[in-house]
# Entry
Amino acid sequence: LLASKKVDLIIGYKSEGNRRTKPCFVTTPEAADILVFNNYCINNLAVYLTKKEIKDKGKIGIVAKGCDIRSIIQLINENQIERDKVFIIAAECDGVVKNFDCEMNDDNIAPKCKFCQLRSPKVYDQLFGSPTQRKFPEGKLMENILRIENMTPEERFAFWNEEFSKCIRCYACRQVCPLCYCEQCIADRSVPDWIESSATERANFSWNIVRAFHLAGRCIGCGECARVCPVDIPLSLLNAKMALTAMNEFGYTAGKGINEPTLVGNYSNEDKEDFIK
# Structure
């Protein structure tokens, strides 16, 4: 692809040894030898596609798992990138690890892989690998969502308030999210000052809830926010609940197909209103 000038840059993974990988950027055919793909390629590389430094490079090739491709589709549908400016190098995915330091096994599978429906990508320009034969253990996402839904409003508030109280406002969740692409985040605005920057109980609650609402109908469930959170707030659980509401109330799934209208950018007279209480 690089030699034929079909792409100007490839975003992929390289090995760091000791089972670790990290994102890398390749611009020459000779440098492409460093590229790898395995169970340790955890990062969702779509987060780089909206960066100005990347968009200025021309046509971008990107190595993407099925779940990552949903991020790319959503970015296209939100007019953040152009379909003809990105070359999707899709991988048949055998799942990725939860912990870099351990071998891939049933106890070390990333939570998102347990309910993934896109191990064989549907949208791509080039596909490599073979369909996985792995039998994935069943995830507990719906069980955890129902557990919280069955709480009283007071119990639910207390649960999330306790989780958010751990937040240190490092914004790692924002930085790793492909759909957090605002040039200036509302959390960084000082005029007007919408959200306090200090890690107080009130400010933490505001930040995490506002971010969840901003991702409603947009989050594709890549799980990167929860993975990078240094205090283990179950952000994926909150975002998954919002995604479930979007599907149940509007029949909408983020990143499902290119050129589909976005949830917040599309209005219908048949839209429900009674779920907002």
